[in-house]
Amino acid sequence: MMTGPSTREQAGAGFVVELEKFSGPLDLLLHLIKEDEVDITDLPIAKIADQFLSVIAELGLNQAADYLEMAARLLRIKAQMLLPRRLGDDEWEDPRAELVRRLLEYQQIRELVDWLGQAADARAERFGRGYEAPPPDAPPAPLQIDLNDLLAAAERVIALIPEPMLHRVVPRPLDVEGATARIQALLAERETFGWHQAVGPQATLVDVLSTFIALLELAKRSALTLSQSEPFGPMVITRAISREAA
Amino acid sequence: MQSLAKLLEAALFAASRPLTLEELASLDPTAGEPAVRAALAALRSAYSDEHGVELVEIAEGWQFLTRREYAETIERAQFALRPRRLSPAALETLAIIAYRQPVGRLEVDEIRGVDSGAVMDKLVERGLIEVVTRGEGLGRPLLYGTTPSFQEILGLKNLEDLPRLEELSVALRRPTPVDEPE
């Protein structure tokens, strides 16, 4: 099977990517015929039809009308092989004839494509006068889709959207009053103490913030003074003397 | 070099596209086509070895083109860039139209087994194919053919330069007419 791991990975992304691989159902059929090394004029239709169906299912091509049409054609020929029609006394109609003709014709076109591609490559190695830079890619042709296609495409895109990350924000009010009470109790007990005593053991972020605001507030009210021996040094909290004196 | 050859040289240098024999002959109405042919041959041999450009017969005309061996260096310096390659779908469509022209969209679809409308629109836009006539039958479908630009980008002298179908390894007995559902 010509599907590498990359094809499998891309299969979920939709058939558009895979269409690039084959230029149409005839191209895919020729590929299968070449791979099986079977005689194109004596096509083992049942085998080829099965392979065709499994490949288009695997590549997600079974959503593309051209491929579906060919799949239906193959199955019809497969059925007709069981009940061939008599053309004359010794002649039986070969239901494959038309398909074989088309395949041969297409094979011829592919051979011409190789020739044309090589000719174009050779020509591209010569520059003429009045060189003009190749124009930028033309904008893609306007899409022609109906509403159902659009809805189906939208569904596929929506399915690809990951679950949004939700953060729950819970209000946690600061307990400034509690911290103030705790500091005032400490002040009544001792004349001076440090930050760690003020904030208490196993302080949460809320405790730290509440304590800090309470300290600033008390300092503003001149209930205490805050000092540090050096920048970023440990904070020393001292009972305000003026008040004590008064 | 004789004066007619010099005149042709100047005209071919000035033009940015292949000039046909008739166009070149119009430069000097007294000369006549055989003399122009002879002058072209002289010009081509003058450029055959000693120059970085050569006189090439292309698209039913003549044009000065750089030699292939300099393509990479010129491109690396970005003085000129190779045109983008045509997609397989575009080449398939061109092949069918080149050999079946004038040909309608339905026949191209039928041979390729896929809808070719978008590809053909792009080829028209790039000037490689054009509507040449209308077919008989219902709706008088537009029939397409290749343009001189098609020959130019492939470096063909003319359409006879295309490989003949009998030369291909897959020989068809004869192109069976496709019955179009019209």
Helix and strand element order of chain A? HHHHHHHHEHHEEH
Number of DSSP helices of chain A?
A: 11
Rg result of chain B? 20 Å
Q: What is the H level of CATH, i.e. the homologous superfamily of the largest domain in chain B? A: Winged helix-like DNA-binding domain superfamily/Winged helix DNA-binding domain
Helix content of chain A: 55-70%
Number of helices of chain B: 8
Major sheet summary line of chain A: 3 strands, antiparallel
Q: What is the C-alpha radius of gyration of chain A, as a whole number of Å? A: 41 Å
Please state the overall shape of chain B, judged from the principal axes of the Cα atoms: globular
Number of domains of chain A: 2
What structural class results from the helix and strand content of chain B? Answer: alpha+beta
Strand content of chain B: 5-15%
Q: How many beta strands in the DSSP annotation of chain A?
A: 3
Distance between the termini of chain B: 60 Å
Q: What is the C-level CATH assignment of the largest domain in chain B?
A: Mainly Alpha
- What share of the residues of chain B lie within helices? 40-55%
Low-confidence segments of chain B, given as residue ranges, are 172-182
Weakly predicted, low-confidence segments of chain A:
1-18
Short description:
With 246 residues, chain A is mainly α. Chain A has helices at 5-11, 15-19, 25-36, 45-59, 65-82, 97-123, 147-160, 176-189, 195-199, 205-220, 241-245; strands at 192-194, 224-228, 235-239.
